[in-house]
């Protein structure tokens, strides 16, 4: 008898759908992946649904409603392995900008009837709610890394992703440093590799979409940015984008925010 | 009196999360609600206080499937505000990158999301078991669209190369050359796609839509033009707010867009463009449309899959035109300086018109932003489709009727994540 194929589920919380779309953007591998696993639940791709427990759950998006909090616990209960994909799921995503503001004010800017809106005051990572087996970074994730993570799961090995900085990737690629050569502020020194040093290859500084690398020294980098003329508002904003709630970035932005308020 | 309710709790094969509820009484549709339970992400709120140059990176994150649409309407609105004109090869490159997005988005919708409805599968992957060659062709075709995005934008989702005034880096002529070869194959594949979808069984349903689209004197609409309708509307993007309104009502999940002064619901997207700009399609696209029996106008929403295929041919042709005429510009962007003001733009996302408005101060800080995504604009029209069209199918057994309702929603390729205004819904299960 043929062994049962591992069963996959793809879940969505607050997000742009980009990370799960990465799976459908694996045009060359998609049918092979679909041959090796059973797609149990993936509403963006199929209306079929297999109820029960899933061997592998990929979770996209952040927790922003009371219902999400309940739902993520259910997803965890029904998943043998749970992997979060993308900045939303691993750090709260861009919607975590509300964590620094008054969410009621946000609601009143966007909606005519604030009383119809039910939302939490924060946007948080999945790992703040349930144990997570592996986190894949990026906004969006790199689809090559996604294929590796899924293959690693199938083969029972560890994923091949690195935790070093974008700078290392620039060196490996032979890019000229945009900060040294062109005086462009670049978050590469503190940002997690995964994109293949994309922005510097396109003549611009990194804006940190893969979030903080292991042991980043953000205060030191801020000193360099300040020397290039960036004021405390700019310093606050540069860390507050797609991974604003990842701790090293959050702390650094808050430091400049406080400075800014002191004047 | 018999009353039955058709409910779909999680609508599959759409971008984002939505649900559907249709109430039938004595065979007539009493109410139809297309519900969206995507939690709010507050883009318009947190754009306030950001510097305008950050706009393309931020608004891209509204939607993973059409980030270019957000980037293009954002940069055009800001350039309108700053009094900057982006012309020549840079303007052409913007058409090219939009072609990439149209191709990948249309082909994803045709093969993975919509065709399974006509052929009776749960999804594209399941369909691949019996229609392997077609699905492989679709995936390869989609990949060509993504390759344009990769080359011009760095990656297919949330490209990094778009900026106000142009691009961070402009490609060299020889970098584009390999794309031309792939696009020639893609054009053939798009032609086969059109012939393939034309063989599907289409319910014969037509409606008298109000179509809204951009109109440009010389080109099939992408980035620029006046906002026009088939019912006499003809305005600049700056006049959008005077003619369209969004309402927020308790029983609905979303801000619904309507034309003001009783103009009602309207349809934007492939069918609107096709009906109002047919003449501006490429020769091959027009010829194919005639060959597959589409004619110059189409009011049957189920046939929108054929219109998407024809637009895919056009996007391949247009991409080839840009590549063949391309000369690398001296500078990849036009320099921009902040000045206080208000700017507007609308562009044609694959699934419909997308409107942006920004107000900035002298330092370039955004004071206010308004974004009206295509799904918000189409939502009222979609519910009218359900009421008008589904009534005619009410004799179908429950499961088939449910399927038909879902298919009717998927005609629109609704993109729920990007609907920045959508609310969390309390579904009335009464
Ligand atoms: S991490 Fe970025 S790409 Fe992924 S879902 Fe969130 S916003 Fe989209
Ligand atoms: S260089 Fe930085 S901002 Fe650019 S893609 Fe890589 S991680 Fe993201």
Automatic annotation (TrEMBL), chain A:
Transmembrane segments: none annotated. InterPro entries: Hydrogenase_assoc-protein, NADH_UbQ_OxRdtase-like_20kDa, NiFe_Hase_small_N_sf. It holds the Pfam family Oxidored_q6. SUPFAM superfamilies: HydA/Nqo6-like. Residues 16-152 form the NADH:ubiquinone oxidoreductase-like 20kDa subunit domain. Keywords: 3Fe-4S, Cell membrane, Iron, Iron-sulfur, Membrane, Metal-binding, Oxidoreductase. The keyword Metal-binding applies. Its cofactor is [3Fe-4S] cluster. PANTHER family: COENZYME F420-REDUCING HYDROGENASE, GAMMA SUBUNIT (PTHR42845), HYDROGENASE SMALL SUBUNIT (PTHR42845:SF1). This is Oxidoreductase. It comes from Methylocystis iwaonis.
UniProtKB/TrEMBL annotation, chain B:
Keywords: Metal-binding, Nickel, Oxidoreductase. InterPro entries: Ni-dep_hyd_lsu, Ni-dep_hyd_lsu_Ni_BS, NiFe-Hase_large. Its cofactor is Ni(2+). Coiled coil: none annotated. SUPFAM superfamilies: HydB/Nqo4-like. The keyword Transcription does not apply. Belongs to the [NiFe]/[NiFeSe] hydrogenase large subunit family. PANTHER family: COENZYME F420 HYDROGENASE, SUBUNIT ALPHA, F420-NON-REDUCING HYDROGENASE VHU SUBUNIT A. This is Ni/Fe hydrogenase subunit alpha. It comes from Methylocystis iwaonis.
């Amino acid at each position: 008898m043929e062994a049962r194929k591992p069963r996959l589920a793809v879940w969505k919380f607050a997000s742009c759908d980009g990370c799960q779309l990465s799976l459908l953007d694996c045009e060359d591998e998609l049918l092979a992946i679909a041959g090796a696993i059973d797609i149990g639940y993936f509403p963006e791709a199929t209306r079929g649904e297999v109820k029960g427990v899933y061997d592998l759950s990929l979770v996209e998006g952040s927790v922003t409603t009371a219902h999400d909090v309940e739902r993520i616990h259910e997803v965890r209960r029904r998943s043998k392995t749970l992997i979060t994909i993308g900045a939303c799921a691993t750090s709260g995503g861009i919607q975590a900008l509300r964590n620094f503001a008054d969410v009621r004010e946000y609601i009143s800017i966007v909606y005519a009837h604030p009383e119809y809106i039910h939302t939490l005051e924060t946007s948080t990572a999945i790992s703040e709610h349930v144990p997570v087996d592996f986190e894949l970074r990026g906004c969006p994730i790199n689809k090559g890394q996604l294929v590796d993570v899924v293959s690693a799961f199938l083969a029972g090995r560890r994923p091949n992703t690195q935790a070093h900085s974008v700078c290392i990737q620039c060196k490996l690629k032979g890019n000229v440093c945009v900060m040294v050569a062109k005086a462009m502020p670049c978050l590469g020194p503190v940002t997690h590799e995964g994109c293949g040093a994309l922005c510097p290859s396109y003549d611009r500084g990194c804006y940190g979409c893969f979030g903080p690398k292991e042991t980043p020294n953000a205060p030191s980098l801020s000193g360099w940015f300040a020397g290039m003329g960036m004021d405390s508002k700019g310093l606050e904003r540069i860390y507050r984008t797609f991974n604003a709630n990842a701790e090293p970035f959050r702390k650094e932005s808050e430091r400049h925010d406080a400075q800014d308020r002191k004047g | 009196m018999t009353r039955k309710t058709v409910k779909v709790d999680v609508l599959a094969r759409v971008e984002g999360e939505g649900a559907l509820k249709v109430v039938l009484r004595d065979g007539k549709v009493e109410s139809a609600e297309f519900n969206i339970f995507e939690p709010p992400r507050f883009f318009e709120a947190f754009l306030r206080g950001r510097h305008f140059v950050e706009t393309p990176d931020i608004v891209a994150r509204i939607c993973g499937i059409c980030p270019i649409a957000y980037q293009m309407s954002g940069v055009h609105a800001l350039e309108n505000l700053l009094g900057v004109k982006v012309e020549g090869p840079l303007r052409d490159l913007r058409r090219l990158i939009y072609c990439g997005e149209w191709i990948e988005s249309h082909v994803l919708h045709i093969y993975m999301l919509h065709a399974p409805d006509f052929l009776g599968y749960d999804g594209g992957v399941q369909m691949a078991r019996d229609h392997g060659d077609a699905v492989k062709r679709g995936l390869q075709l989609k990949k060509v669209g993504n390759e344009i995005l990769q080359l011009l934008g760095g990656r297919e989702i949330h490209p990094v190369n778009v900026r106000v005034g142009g691009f961070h880096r402009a490609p060299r002529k020889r970098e584009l050359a390999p794309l031309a070869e792939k696009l020639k194959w893609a054009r053939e594949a798009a032609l086969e796609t059109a012939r393939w979808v034309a063989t599907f069984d289409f319910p014969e349903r037509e409606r008298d839509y109000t179509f809204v689209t951009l109109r440009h004197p010389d080109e099939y609409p992408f980035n620029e033009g006046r906002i026009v309708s088939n019912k006499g509307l003809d305005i600049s993007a700056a006049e959008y707010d005077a003619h369209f309104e969004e309402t927020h009502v308790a029983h609905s999940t979303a801000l619904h867009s309507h034309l003001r002064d009783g103009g009602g619901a309207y349809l934007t997207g492939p069918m609107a463009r096709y009906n109002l700009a047919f003449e501006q399609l490429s020769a091959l696209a027009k010829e194919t449309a005639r060959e597959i029996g589409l004619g110059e106008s189409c009011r049957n929403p189920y046939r929108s899959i054929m219109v998407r295929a024809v637009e895919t041919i056009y996007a391949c042709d247009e991409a080839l035109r840009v590549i063949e005429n391309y000369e690398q510009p001296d500078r990849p962007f036009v320099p921009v300086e902040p000045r206080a003001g208000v700017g507007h733009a609308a562009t044609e996302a694959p699934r419909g018109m997308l409107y942006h408005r920004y107000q900035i101060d002298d330092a370039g800080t955004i004071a206010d932003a308004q974004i009206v995504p295509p799904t918000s604009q189409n939502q009222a029209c979609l519910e009218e489709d359900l009421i008008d069209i589904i009534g005619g199918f009410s004799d179908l057994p429950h499961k088939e009727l449910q399927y038909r309702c879902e298919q009717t929603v998927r005609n629109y390729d609704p993109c729920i994540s990007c609907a920045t205004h959508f609310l969390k819904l309390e579904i009335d299960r009464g």
